[in-house]
Amino acid sequence: MGRFIEGAERSQTTLLPECLDDFIAEDNPVRIVDAFVEELELASLGFEGTTPASTGRPSYHPAVLLKIYIYGYLNRVQSSRRLERECQRNVELMWLTGRLAPDFKTIAEFRRNNGEGIRNVCRRFVMISRELKLFTQAVVAIDGSKFKAVNSRDNNFTPNKIARRQEQIEQSIQRYLDALETADRTQPAEVEAKTERLREKIETLREQMRDLDRAAELLNDLPEKQVSLTGPDSRSMVSQAKGTGVVGYNVQVAVDARHHLIVTHEVTNVGNDRTQLSPMAKAARDAMGKKKIKALADRGYFSAPEIKACDDAGITALVPKSQTSGAKADGRFDRADFI
């Protein structure tokens, strides 16, 4: 191949095989993950399976699965199927797990069955960060993101959605009834099959109307006037990142401004951020063990009562003032008319 750098022959054997540890540098983050998990008391943190059963097939230790979960979190590998593949080909995961490769069902069940334990691990990480003096600046940045739920838009109902859908169904029923009337007048032999199909469609639409009526009755008892059938806690909200509406959750995160460590997080179903400033700032203050902190947020968090609540709690909130105004909606002049 001339003067190119050439690789080793794949079939060449070596007298001294390489050690797997040689492929992992001393400053590789997986070494921190390994040391962190090994020092945890998983049983006291609420993890299942820390004591092996006396019968049956041996199971994976929760520490191995937790290392895989943390590695996937750090490297944006969320799918359990992708984590299974990475365990089989990724040298870092091979080193981290001791060449173990759990299947995707095992990884998924670990995440599903140990939610409380994983949250306790996150709290333990924040406590270690406090002990290492990583929160000395006492400055946090707060922001939120919309996460899509399993619930689809078709299974999310509001009074306006129900009214629009009922109007569409009524128009469809009327169209099918007109087609039936036309078929009854002509009555050719080949139209009989079509007539039967039209009756079935009409019955299906009427059943949908009854379902919508039941959903409307359910909405009358809810203060939020919104219901999701698949994910009851999910809500329809506007996502600026996608430029459209999404049925999901509003995930709030407070991050240390110096080291970019997540101090605390919370999942809500409130579509906007205006009421989230003081709760997140207070939770971050308590997690950092500080009496006074500074909280940074964008103008979506601007709310006079929230800023006042932060000030009363010893938190300095730095939030740009919102440029929106209700004056124009009320037919009056707004701030832009005087600039």
From TrEMBL:
Asked if the keyword Zinc belongs to this entry, the reply reads no
Q: What keyword terms does UniProt attach to this protein? A: Coiled coil
Cite the Transposase InsH N-terminal domain residue spans from the record: 19-112
Which InterPro entries is this protein grouped with?
IS1182_transpos, Transposase_11, Transposase_InsH_N
Which spans of this chain does the record mark as coiled coil? 195-222
Q: Which residues form the Transposase IS4-like domain?
A: 240-321
Q: Name one GO molecular function term.
A: transposase activity
Q: Does the keyword tRNA-binding apply?
A: no
- Cite the NCBIfam families for this sequence: transpos_IS1182
- PANTHER family in alphabetical order: TRANSPOSASE (PTHR33408), TRANSPOSASE DDE DOMAIN-CONTAINING PROTEIN (PTHR33408:SF2)
Name of protein: Transposase
